[in-house]
Amino acid sequence: MKNISVTVYIPGLWALLRHAGSETLESMPSLQLLLKRRDRSTESSLESEALLLNRLGWQGDENNDVPVAALEHLLADSDGISDSFWFRANPINLLEDQNYLIMSYPSMLNLDLDESKALADSINQHFAEDGWHVEVIDNSRWYLRLDKNPCIRTTPAWRVVGRDIFNLMPEGENSIQWHSWLMELQMLLFSHPVNEKRTGQGLAAVNGLWLWGGGNLPELLERHQLCLRGDSLFIQGVARQSGCELKDLSDGMLEINNDQLIMLEYARTALQSGNMGQVMAALKELENSVFRPLFDLLKSKKLHNMSIVDSPGHIVNISASGINRWWRRRDMEKLIRDPLAATEKYRKP
Q1: Which of 162, 183, 215 is the C-terminal boundary of a domain?
Q2: 22 and 82 part of one domain
Q3: The CA-based dihedral angle spanning residues 262, 283, 344, 110, taken in that order and rounded to the nearest 10 degrees
Q4: Which one of 66, 165, 178, 208 has the largest count of C-beta atoms within 10 Å of its C-beta?
Q5: Bridge partners for 6 per DSSP
Q6: Beta strands 260-263 and 227-229: pairing type?
Q7: Residue pair 68/213 in contact by the 8 Å Cβ criterion
């Protein structure tokens, strides 16, 4: 047996299982056995993307954003501005709920490209002296380019959907200034012609931007012995920046010959949909396309060990020797409990 390991990063997996209910695991026998027969589970306060980049030499920590935006934008950077500081700038709709301000599910907006560009143009004109430049790649993929580090920490947008934003706003040295700008932005958008037209048609208005994933393009080590898998913009940017081979999930999954880092979007995409049908479909896809093939590889000892990562939260490690210990019945419930459980308002899908 070769000493081959696979690490699967699935942001939102534990939350997805919570929403689906514990009985859902009964229809996921491979995941059930992987969790029950695990060797150990550890906790991390870092985002899953940070842990993946750490494998490639990036020295990030919980006091800084993971530079998701810069790595994603690398794929569209035809202007030679990859040395800028980039944020993802998600257009959002905020709903008032008693004393709370809740971020709506992204599907409620469904902007078209003309609307997106009109809103971005107004934002750029208004904040030009502050160094803002919003770039629209498509109707849901916006970026904010800055000339210097803003010295704030942010929360990934997918973690905020359905939650009160009060305790999730930017933190850090310049947070007060950024809170002021974001309030100013809300006022700018309130009477924007695009929003007036949308509200007149009974559609949700864009009343803010959620900034997250900020940073400059990171330097990554060339680890040619590693293979990356996944189809997200983030993992594509990581592959380009690191020189690692990139494969689709389905490409030779049953014949793994080197260490693999797999980043999958199924869980958090489903969480942001607000649609329980999509939640269940995502779990079914994960069971059939990921957990079952990897379980079989461990069982047959073609794979030495694997890890399932959804962080901040739990990292589960499973070995080929452990998966064959049929008597193991480790507790699964503590893995699925919310490691980030908070008292703020939260609306489930």
Answers
A1: 215
A2: no
A3: 90
A4: 66
A5: 260, 306
A6: parallel
A7: yes
Q: 């491979």: which residue's tokens?
A: 30
pTM of the entire predicted model? 0.91
Q: Per the domain annotation, does 201 fall within a domain?
A: yes
The per-residue pLDDT for range 119-134, each reduced to its tens digit, is 999 999 999 999 999 9
Please enumerate in sequence order all residues whose Cβ is within 8 A of that of 331, keeping only pairs 6 or more positions apart, or say none: none
Q: Judge contact between 241 and 218, C-beta under 8 A.
A: yes
Domain containing residue 134: 68-215
For the purposes of burial, counting CB atoms within 10 Å of the CB of 330, is it exposed (0-12), middle (13-18) or buried (19 or more)? middle
Sequence-distant (6+) residues with CB within 8 A of 73 are 82, 86, 135, 137, 143, 237
Last residue of a domain, one of 190, 215, 240: 215
User: What is the C-alpha to C-alpha distance for residues 145 and 73, in angstroms, rounded to an integer?
Assistant: 10
pLDDT tens per residue across span 243-295: 999 998 887 776 788 899 999 999 999 999 888 899 999 999 999 999 999 99
